[in-house]
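Hi team, as promised in this morning's meeting, here are the two structures we talked about. I've kept the exact order from the run log so nobody has to guess. The first one is mostly here for context; it's the second one we should focus on when we meet again. Sequence first, then the predicted structure tokens.
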Amino acid sequence: ILTEKVSEPRLTPAEICTQAYEQYLREARALAEATVLNYVPFIRSFLKDRFGDGPISLSCLCTHDIVSFVQRQATRLHMKRAKLMTTAMRSFLKYARYRGEVVLDLAAAVPTVANWSMSSIPRAIPAEQVHQLLASIDQHTGMGRRDYAILLLLARLGLRSSEVAFLELDDINWDAGTLSVQGKGGRRNEFPLSDEVGKAIAAYLRDGRSLTNSRRVFLRAKAPTCGFQGASGVGSIVRHSLKRAGIIAPTYGAHQFRHGLATEMLRQGASLGEIGDLLGHRHPQTTKIYIQVDLEALRTLALPWPGGVR
């Protein structure tokens, strides 16, 4: 029986251009995989928006094309995603100039996204919902033990989803009881590994994690058996866990645990400096957003963090 050969779909000019840019980020710039995965979708959308399925002529780009795209997209995105989009756009336009396809410095034309970080209170998951969510996880299965350990890292240490996704076995110092995490800008931050979090990770590694050459702590539950491609894998676990537990949380994202931890610390008397140190904030302004939580929390700012120096 003759089988009909299925031809691979032909790439559009926009996709070809995007792939070339992606290769440049990996090989010439040697950027982290998470950064590449974050930048590329924005550039694919921009090229598709500007050129459709037709030929790509970067020399035809003008300031109006850049500003128009950013303004239209920014209204649909969360502020952090909008800022990431503008960073990706500047990166791509510098790449286009580097290749000689663009003469003008169009990267300078990318609008700046206004910083509204102090305009509203962070959406933080309440402590009682964290407790309810953790109690709902079935720890009798390998996947359940994995999800439980991941949720604990988010809730107890306030790690970012990308930090959890890219955590490696060598980052855990079992003797010292510490966790070394690569945060923003490639900086490494050291966290204390509490008994609760340590036991959860150990339970997953001992009875739940597949045998593999991968050094990632957390692996996908489905084939191929490897680490998560990016932060979205952790975000998916959070979203599905909340829905299974029937919890109506402030959001379905992973970052609410980070906000929840900071809010709870503030209410229990931690200083902004202590909160900033735990969350790995480089600038005090980033931590100041939590002073909006409530007046009761503000009255406790002068009190020491429980367990600290008295």
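And here is the second protein, the one for discussion:
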Amino acid sequence: MASTAAAGFPAADASEAELMIGGMTCASCAARVEKKLNRMDGVTATVNYATEKARVTFAEGLKLGDLVATVEKTGYTARPVARPERKAPPGGGAAAPPGVAPPAAAPDTYTYADEARRTDTSMDTATGPGVDPAVTGPTPGAAPESGADLAVRDAEAEQEAAIGALRQRLVVSAVLAVPVVLLAMVPALQFDYWQWLSLTLAAPVVVWGGLPFHRAAWTNLRHGAATMDTLVSLGTLAAFGWSLWALFLGDAGMPGMRHGFDLTVSRSDAGSTIYLEVAAGVVTFILLGRCLEARAKRRSGAALRALMDLGAKDVAVLRGGREIRVPAGALVVGDRFVVRPGEKIATDGTVVEGSSAVDASMLTGESVPVEVTVGDTVTGA
């Protein structure tokens, strides 16, 4: 009898983990973390910058602490994501039907297409009138929050706090940077000692507003890497540092100094030229981009979580000849479960009894249900 292929499952001596990665600011950061993890013996990792998560498969002998330590040595933070506890079916389960190997010999997940038009009604005793509730298990209700749900909620709270701090940094930097840019670009607004006012306004923007870029650049420098933060930090500090030199050691700090606005490049005294508007403007615009990016990531993540919430939350598993309602995340390879009319299929599997029509529009795009029967494979929703 056909069953799902076991190629998609990790090896028997391997474990899977999911890590929340913190401190990534661009796609190259995700690539560095992934590269470092994959260099470990027996480790296969994929890092998603959009979700800030790493999915890792590691061999026996390694621990989560080793993975976290590797990520931290790379210059980022890592926190394991709690996953539902997966318990193997009890040994006293129902005997396998003829022609089907026991779960231990054939690690496959099976499903029963127990829809309204099923041709085999041998399992109707579990769903018909007068069934003992102890047999079918408790009616699904509001299940308590699992560790994964709490981890998601904590991650959302941290994300909201990070966006709030970023927004505050952007607002303050914009309020201070706009006058600096106007004074430098509009000569009519310049007055005696205007350059010192620009320095007063631009210094908090470059130092405090650009602190995330400077901190990330320093972290990457200690690990011998360069990212977009390195360019931003180097450019803004160079412009700010030159302006300080021109103001204190050059002629830019003299009373009556004026900055002209020209569209052409001309020879001038470098000691009388300042670039405070460049430093403050670049920091402000990059902060604006980071804020928009964080909002877009939050909305896309919320949309993905909403789609995942549409999937099956629990499933009726056959154990010991009885149906027991368990969370969908608690399914293990070898479980056999019943799909009733209107229910979603909890995971990928093979039909071993009954026939029905399954909504496969998520994969095919076709609104017409697909007929499945014994031996056909189905995809979890």
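Starting points for discussion:
The CA atoms of residues 92 and 320 lie 6 Å apart.
Residues 147-185 form the longest helix (39 residues).
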